Amino acid sequence: MTFDLIIIGGGPAGYHAARLAGKAGLAVLLAEERPGKGTEPAVGGVCTHEGCIPTKTLLHSARLLDQARRADRYGLNVPQASLDHRKVMERKRKIVTVLERGIVSGLRKQNVRLASGRAVIAGMKGSEFQVALGGEEHTGRRLLIASGSVPFIPPLPGLQEGLASGFIVTSREILEGEDVPASLAVVGAGTVGLEFAYYFSVLGSKVTVIEMLPRIGGTLDSEAALMLQKQLSGQGIEFRLAANVTAFAPGVISYMTSSGSGTVQAERALLCIGRRPMITGMGIESLGVKLDRGGIKTDHQGRTSVEGVYAAGDVTGRALLAHAAYRDAETAVSAMLGETGGLEIEAVPAVIYTRPEAAWAGESEESARTKKIDYAASVTTLRYSGRFLVENEGDDGMCKMIIDKKDGRLIGVHLVGDPASEIAFGASFLIERGASVGDLRRMIFPHPTVSEIFHEAAHML
Known about the structure:
The protein is built from 14 helices and 26 strands. By secondary structure, the protein is α/β, with parallel strands linked by helices. It has a 5-stranded parallel β-sheet with strand order 4-3-2-8-21, with helices on one face. It has a 5-stranded parallel β-sheet with strand order 10-17-11-12-13. Strands 22-23-26-25-24 form a 5-stranded antiparallel β-sheet, with helices on both faces. Helix 8 links the parallel strand 12 and strand 13. Helix 3 (52-69) crosses helix 7 (191-202). 47% of the residues are buried. The mean pLDDT is 94.
């Protein structure tokens, strides 16, 4: 059988593209390497199985425990609150199963054929693509590569031995374990590292975060990152910043700073230093697809350098986020169907789901300076919001807005405090639509909500 579209990878980009293409009437084959039950693959990708959904399940339980311990602030008495990590892991597995079944059901409704195993591009026959899978060869008029990403494993002394022994784990292994280490060293202070640091800290682990950069949070604005760090430090998490890990030994992580060397002793080390596009073992070299910064190079509609071949999601190396992958998929399928329009990635929202949450979209002060943008910034405390005061007794938060002074357009928003995750989409939407400070001042926000802080912050500029 010849398919209109063969998709390699069943993560957010792959399964969303398959649904859309199937709904449009294309004959679609979706190949996923992760084994599921029976002969079908486990679709959903890293997001469903070892990323977004599993971690948020754990974090929700941790936040409930955290709130119970602080319940006296709200006039409640919750004595001896505790958390059963094994039950949390059972619930995580149940939620993952439910979501995966939902994805499969949606694919079947659109007549998408699922195939389990590693798909390898064997080349071309005329204008069609040949893909080997499970001892069979399939033909497709188009290809979409959505193979995702894998954890970055640097060539450091003792690292491979630590992985083999179980002393060092990645996000995949730690989400399968049912024990809580007495001490945990988290290598990397990006989103994943901070979220696991928060979870295990709430459960009682002595957590130390080691980060090579002088601040936490990746591209989060440095002022917002400092507030987040202070609040996490107040919860018992220790930070070693501007520290380059140099070696691993059983129970010990060695690092170097500008002032000298140091070590962290821990029962377990969690490696969270980023991910890289998964581009090996699929035969893309047989097509001559061009790469860019470790990922597959695409244009604004997901097209690669080879006609008929598209790429979407983490494999492009742009924004390694599930919601960005969904948009990639929509853009690529639209291009296949002859529709115009391109990908907007100037203000992809990002969230760190700790307590407090942090969320941001667009430029930070650091990126604005690097791009030589003449900008203005304001910082407004979330304590101006009555809703925030009601729900976050004794806590503080911030909303930083950054505008382009040339035309007053909003170009960046950075938030620390709950519920930043639920209002970050608004920041992204406003930035992408070119909203100005004047537009924000004229908007009507529901009261009382934390989102009103946008209105307050606009009047500070």
